[in-house]
Amino acid sequence: MKRTYEEINAKIKNGDAVVMTAEEAIALAESKGVEKAAAEVDVVTTGTFGAMCSSGAFVNFGHSEPPIRMSNVTLNGVPVCAGLAAVDAYIGATDERPDSEPKYGGAHVIESLVKGEAVHLKATASGTDCYPRQEIDTYISLKTLNQAYLYNPRNMYQNYAVATNSSERTLFTYMGKLLPEYGNMTYSSAGQLSPLLKDPTLRTIGIGTRIFLGGGVGYVAWEGTQYKTNVPVRNGVPSASARTLAVIGDLKGMSSEFLRGLSIHGYGVSLGVGIGVPIPILDEDLMKTAVTTDNDIYAPVLDYSTPSRDRRPIGEVSYAELKSGNVEILGKSIKTSSLSSYNKARVIADKLKNMITNGEFLLTQPVEKLPEERKQKPLNICSKDEVAQ
Amino acid sequence: MMVKKKVKLRFVPEQANEPITYVLVKDYNLRFNILQAKIIDGGGKLLLEIEGEEKCVDAGLKYLRDCGVSVKEVCDFVSKDETKCTNCGLCVSICPAEAIDMDRDTWVVKFNTEKCIGCFMCVEACPLNAMILKI
Known about the structure:
The complex is a heterodimer of chains A (389) and B (135).
Chain A: H1 5-14, E1 19-21, H2 22-32, H3 34-40, E2 43-45, E3 48-51, E4 56-60, E5 72-75, E6 78-84, E7 88-92, H4 106-115, E8 119-124, E9 135-140, E10 147-155, E11 162-164, E12 171-173, E13 176-178, E14 185-187, H5 195-198, E15 210-213, E16 216-223, E17 233-234, E18 237-238, E19 245-250, E20 259-264, E21 268-276, E22 278-280, H6 284-290, E23 298-303, E24 315-318, H7 319-324, E25 326-329, E26 332-338, H8 342-357, H9 384-387
Helix pairs in contact in A: 2-3, 3-6
Chain B: E1 2-11, H1 20-26, E2 31-40, E3 43-53, H2 54-66, E4 70-74, E5 78-80, E6 100-103, E7 108-111, H3 121-125, E8 131-133
């Protein structure tokens, strides 16, 4: 059985495409087998909604009268990066308003923009002959901006380590609050619904792939930062964090249902991003990976009390175990919590399915494939001579 | 009829030497669970879950009021703002009272206020600030 993108898109346009969420495809493959499921289904949809810290939005404010080349810029008190021409800025999701509690940051500003709320802009500048103005204090919103687009350098981690804490002290991490002496365990992946676990070698996901992003439509822009392929594989799926994607999409058209500012106590701000990726079933092999279940997807458990980048896994657990609410490890039963929302992952996979079924969303063949091999480099303290090429 | 009430008590320094919990047990035959006890500037704060015969509970609370203790009955310590909650479940493993549970069919987080002991661990843990302090 073989299918092409063109054939699938022709079926979508005719309203004949058979589209299923990964959960539905799993049930179909379990009852009829992978071969029949592949013959029957054209597209499998996936979804995830989680904290994706490496996110942000580019905006263009437009020019004031007289014009200003903004240098120190804040939005609702959150400093944003304005080292881009005169009135362009990048709102980094994790930048914080000083002294805010609970923490308020760039992610919340992005959520406000998507909601259409007014956002307070303040900027100063040194003033030049071509940009004489030295300060501005005004309000902006999504409708006043020329451009406002999400550009997230690292989203949708293909699998992610599970966090726990062996120490006697409570830890506050980006994986949430970790109770002492293995008091709990937190994880952050939709497992069997998670996009990059369903096409693990990225045969169909590459530069230019159209995706569901934050409630609107977006695209894969590049390999995500910290993209790596040299990771252990179990049942055909990476059993540690591996590939990532950089994604882009217009904030106009997105919704706060799928784009949320998060304040993680004792850590800081992050952006909750909802993403869905369609997997075209070009052949049986793609259906085989698309129907991998939580029983076959494993993640390493890391002890976050080790303050090192080289944390040795204390074990490996399946998403089926994690999602049951309790995991047995080191002779203990540990309660689990998810940082990503499986409920929203389902909603996204379902929405994307409906968009494709209704002919509103066509599939795209990648313009370029993403790297087949990539190692992640560490940052070491080096001399000038050691690093120069 | 047996009843269970959650009460928030506030004391002024003059009442500090009154053994009120002892009296509640001995004279009013009440069972209680101390959820929080704090000495703060200008007095003290006690969060109790009191259980007993309805008339004993009422009499016990009257005794407290007569002593000059400020008594406030509370329904819920914490409420969940459904518009903010994304149903991630980060609060589930944090809750020491098993008052928060994940429905594994719908993947919706269920909050059982009856079981809540007012520790507020979930309030701090929620990245969406969806768990709201009520007292």
